[in-house]
From TrEMBL:
The Thioredoxin domain, residue ranges: 12-139
UniProt organism field: Musca domestica
GO BP field: protein folding
Keyword match Signal: yes
Signal peptide region: 1-27
Protein name listed in UniProt: Endoplasmic reticulum resident protein 44 isoform X2
Gene Ontology MF terms: protein disulfide isomerase activity
Amino acid sequence: MRAWNLRKCYYTAVFMILYVFYHPADSGAVSLTSENIDMTLASNELVFLNFYAEWCRFSNLLAPIFNEAADKVREAFPDAGKVVLGKVDCDKETAIASRFHITKYPTLKIVRNGQLSKREYRGQRSADAFLEFVKKQLEDPIKEFHSLKDLETLDSKKRIIIGYFDRRDQPEYDTFRKVASNLKDECQFHVGFGEAAQAMHPPGGENKPLGHPIIVFRPDVALTHENDETYTGSLKNFDELKIWIQEKCVPLVREITFENAEELTEEGLPFLILFHHPDDTNSIKDYKAIIEQQLMDEKQNVNFLTADGKRFAHPLHHLGKSEEDLPIIAIDSFRHMYLFPNFKDMYQPGKLKQFLQDLYNGKLHREFHYGPDPVTNEIQVDVNSNTSPPESTFKKLGPSKNRYTLLTKDEL
């Protein structure tokens, strides 16, 4: 009798958990609160979150679209633990809003394997677009190669992580796959098994029947002077492997595109940008090397970027330059743009660092109006006392006021 009562209590508890966290009859996105969000994040491979406020017009416009997408996703991926579309009422769940650093409504974020993705969803806001996004997120992030010769054809302009394993069912590969899922937007991931990887594996011994798995980082060799590097930490420790791969896949100097410009502007740091011709890889390599050698201590104060000067012709025009003037270097402070006078001066130690210091102390702004400071002529800038420096063009690529309610004081 006692055993029967224990079983009854057990099944009752299971039923209550399922009732609280999973309602198969419900339609639309799942409402998440402080009571169920941690369980939802921990028990699903992918959680797509909509942070909204009832008073926000853009939130109200998005709500039925996101609910429709949730139904489509549920139909496409019916298995429990795969994917959930969740919504958070930030006025009621202020602790959750604070935890996820919500500064605008609606904000769409991704959590993979319990880990928050750095990048927000910034694509088209339609039910079909959301469904396609989820499908893409759930694709296998790792491409398999079948011989070492296959690796010779990989894109030399991409940062790549390559794994060598004996078998797919090794626990180390499971860790590798989870990390790849979380960082698929930052790097390309490739893997070889068995014979395809044997040439890279040290042989197994009596106490080691399998060759030891190997993880290698291959830099974007067409754009950098970096070399390959092998991971030496634990292959069973998710956090350790993720930190190492993230450091390799998110470079000190990043490329700005129209796709990631909004994300970069939201980081709130001034841009030091190399505008280059699309085919000019040597300038990119040298710029990256100089930044790494001389400006590492500035990485908390500025974003180091490269930009295709052909695609970003408008900022060049704003600076009074054209494609024929490439390569050039400039600062966008989100108020004004300042031109580094001579690209070749980049190769003189200290010149780029002084350029940044002159931004911080206001010298660039003063000299634009009044000419060089009387004490030094280190930075020569064209003088026009009747105008201000060119206004920032990249701040216009920040969050669109036609898509968000920004949390400014007058709205609160």
